[in-house]
Amino acid sequence: MSKVVLEIAAFSIEAALNALAAGADRIEFCENPMEGGTTPSYGSLLLLSQLTKQPVFPIIRPRGGDFLYTDREFQVMQNDLMACKQLGFKGAVIGLLKSDGHIDTKRTAALVEAAGSMEISFHRAFDRCKDPFVALEQLIDLGCKRILTSGQVPNVGNAIPMIQSLIEKANDRIVILPGSGVRADNIAKIVTATGAKEMHSSARKAMASKMEFNQPTMQENMHYFDVDIAEIKAMLAAINTTS
Predict the structure, then answer these.
(1) Residue from 171, 98, 178 nearest 140 by CA
(2) Which residue ranges form the domains of the chain, and what is each CATH number?
(3) Which of 25, 132, 158, 228 is deepest in the core (most CB within 10 A)?
């Protein structure tokens, strides 16, 4: 078996650089982890494009919540994708649905076409679609390169048969990228059971604020999110045993 690619979802520039330094193969670059990830600011995109040439795929998602977008929201997505393309990113991550639970094929096609040579991954909006096998064929036809999925349940570890079926049906026409709940203690099992060639994890870790002063009347402790470097290295070690 060839090397398994490990993608890490990073929610800041520091987290992205830390994940790459730990050995991650690709970064899904986002902001706002409590919203499930939204498009990073232009300032963040610009700086990260200057700091690394390793594979970074920004998410193109104008807000949290569902994946049913207004015309103006779609215009924002088009603008953000073009900004990522102009900055030299090699790929981007999108996901759009219609109200009936099917893939928004018209808008997805427009984004894939606009992306040109950029690789387009379709994110976990896929897990909200009505029929995953119909959606699979649609995304292949549209030219998407991979699908991030937890198998239409919250934790991918509980969807091994679905992931197996998707990989079998995909038949190397598109990459099935299992994610959500992937950690060092289960990643090798998922790879071995499904034959997945790529894996996705946030390896997210809450970090205590480095502020020396914390106003006690605010009655809260501030924290931020980074990646767990030890966890990333442990995942890489685990999947290397499956190669």
Answers:
(1) 171
(2) 5-240 (3.20.20.380)
(3) 228
Residue type, 43: G
**In the numeric block, which tokens belong to residue 96?**
């759009």
Structural tokens at position 139: 């995304």
Q: Provide the pLDDT confidence category of residue 233 given band limits of 50, 70 and 90.
A: very high
pLDDT at 234 over 80: yes
Mark residue 222 as left, alpha or beta (left: phi above 0; alpha: psi -120 to 50; beta: remaining): beta
> pTM to 2 decimals?
0.96
Cβ pair 63, 34 in contact under 8 A: no
Q: To the nearest whole number, what is the mean pLDDT of the chain?
A: 97
Query: Are the C-beta atoms of 204 and 175 separated by less than 8 Å?
Result: no
